[in-house]
Every structure is written in C-alpha cells, then in structure tokens.
Amino acid sequence: MTTRRRTLIGMGALAANALSLGQAPQARATEGAESGPANDESRTATADFPLARAIDVHAHYITPTYRQALIDAGLDQPDGMSAIPAWSVDGALELMDSTGIAAALLSVSSPGFAVGDHHTARALVRQVNEEGAALVKANPTRFGLLASLPLPDADAAVEEVAHVFDVLKADGISLETNYEGTYLGDPSFRPVLAELNERQAVVHLHPTSPACWEATALGRARPMIEFLFDTTRTVTQLILDRVVENYPDIRFIVPHAGAALPVLADRIAAFALTESTPPVDVIGALKRLHYDVAGFALPRALPALLHLVDTERLLYGSDYPFTAEAAVKALGVRLAATDVLTAQQRQRVLSGNAARLFPRLADGGNS
Ligand SMILES: [Zn+2]
Fold first, then answer.
1. Which residue from 79, 202, 218, 362 has the least number of CB within 10 angstroms?
2. What separation in Å is there between the alpha carbon of 56 and the centre of ligand 1?
C-alpha cells in the first residue's frame, strides 16, 4: 500500500470514526455481479447511503493504455505521489454501488498527457478518449465522459473537440489548469475556448503541478497545496482576462470547493479595479462558475465557498481513485451531517444541480 493511500485512508477512517459511521452500506441488490461483465443491468447503487443518487462530476479513469504510457514516460509517481492508484471498471462500480453514487463523469487526472512530444500526446489523447467513450457505451447510465484535449497544441485541440462531441458523444471536457506552464486564459488557447463556447460545453478544470513546482512544492506531494494554488491561478486568469465574460456559454466547474478562491475573492476583486476600465466584475464572474466539493470540503472549505456562491452552483465530486474509498465515504457522511446545508440543498449538491449540466444522467438515466 502506498504512503499516500495509507494517509488518505487514515484520514478517512479518522473522519468516519468521529462521525460514527457505524452502519455498513446495504449489500448490493445483485450480489455475484463481480464475476460477470460490468454493465448497467447487473448493478444497482445502494439507496440509503448519504451519497444516494449522487452524480459525481469529479471521478477518474485509468485504462491500462494510459497507465503504461505514464510508466513509460517515467511518471509512475505522478505529481510527487508514491504511485498511480489502482483503478478498474469493476472497482469503480463497486465504490459507486457501496456509497450510492448513481453516475460518475470520468476524466483523466493529472499529469494528463505530458508524455512526450505533441504528436505522441495527441495520439494518446485520442486513444484514451476512445477508451473512455467505450466505458460509457458499456455503462451508459453509470458513466459519463469528460474528454481530454491535446493542449497546448490548440489546432489539434480544436479538432479533438469536434471528434469527442460529434463522434464520441462526450458529456463535456476536462482541462488541466496549465499545459507546459501555459494557463487557460492565454491568448493561444482562445480558438479552443471559442469552440467550447459555441458548443456550450461543460468544462471541468483539473489541477496539475505548476511549471515552478521544484521551487515551490517544498519537497511535498503537489496535490496537497500546489494543486489548489494552480486552480486559483488559472481561474483568476480566466476571469481577469475576461474569458469568463467573453465566453459565457462555457459551463466551467472549479474543483475542490474553489481551492483558495473563496478567501482570495475580495483581494482579486480589489486589484481588478486597478487593472482595466471598466474593471472586471470578479465576484460576479465567480458566482457564475460551478464548483465541485471533492476532497476535504468540510468542515472549513465549504462554509467559505458558501459565502461566495449559491448552493445551486455546487456539485458533488469524489476524486476517486486519487481519493481513497474511506475518504470518499467520510465526505459523504460529513455532507449528510453538516448544518451548512439543508436537506434540500444537500440533494441539489449531490444530484439536482449536476442533472441540469448533464441531463443524460439525471434520474438514473431514465429522464
Ligand atoms: Zn481529481
């Protein structure tokens, strides 16, 4: 077992104990499904766990192709973590069944496709997108796909946008917070953003290491604080460079309860007054974004975010398998127990808000 996995399981277990996670999740309705093919008919999500009927907008898939490409590129300890976590279709469905998660939007996590030259990366993006689409086709009510793009090659990325939406029928796009040190508000990425705006795409942002991590990460795994700062950095650029304003039909999802944005929002807004005339409406732009609650949103981050945005902007995210099963369950228990959400608001966060972004997956795919 990896050090990081041990750590997260430990944290999850501590949180679970503190909240008296006593009851075992109900057995799945169809035991024995493990040995058969993973498909919609053989599995049913648990109905009474705190995450019942949740739509998970922040879940990852790691196909054998992608895992081997990371290993071949020397990225078997991604972003300073001790290993690439295990992942399989059956394992993902097991977690969803045991926690009640109805559907998960699958995306590739960091380090994305920084695996060689742009030609190699482009081919791998295409193949892993195709593999993701095949997973969705086999499990259409349980999985969706947030496809990857071969940035920073903007021309290739525009072509991939057409392929993933027109051919693969992807549910949205996943973008890393930077590509080789270029952030998402950079003018070179505008053709891609224009295309995503035209298609009214849902775009989930995913943190990755900043280009300067050797100097700033203090020798620690970058997901601990660098990921949060990189999210804050790219969203700040998207807002101050008026991408959010000029491409209003992109539905952006900011991960990890908005990272540092809730506590920096007023400061960014104040500096914006000095940058341009008329000044960018920073708070207004932040209120138009969506936010997933993956990771450690409670007890502190979510209350801060709720000072910034309404609950209809919040979405559930597990970050599985990079967040271990015990920590996923612990967040579910905390979301059920917190007094910062009413029962109605909690259900919106778990599924109602995501159903508007991903209507195909609403109500177990039966809508
Ligand atoms: Zn993630």
1. 218
2. 11
Q: Where are the domains of the chain?
A: 3-18+51-362
Output the pLDDT for position 44. 54
| Å from CA of 359 to ligand 1 middle | 22
Per-residue pLDDT reduced to its tens digit, 72-125: 999 999 999 999 999 999 999 999 999 999 999 999 999 999 998 999 999 999
Kindly list the protein residues that place their beta carbon closer than 5 angstroms to ligand 1, a single-atom ion: 109, 319
- The rounded Å distance from CA 275 to ligand 1 centre is 32
pTM beyond cutoff 0.85: yes
Q: What is the pLDDT, as a whole number, of residue 97?
A: 95
Please tell me the distance between residue 237's alpha carbon and the centre of ligand 1 in angstroms: 21
C-beta of residue 148 within 8 angstroms of C-beta of residue 362: no
**pLDDT at residue 50 in the model:** 84
- The enclosing H or E element of 231 equals helix 226-240
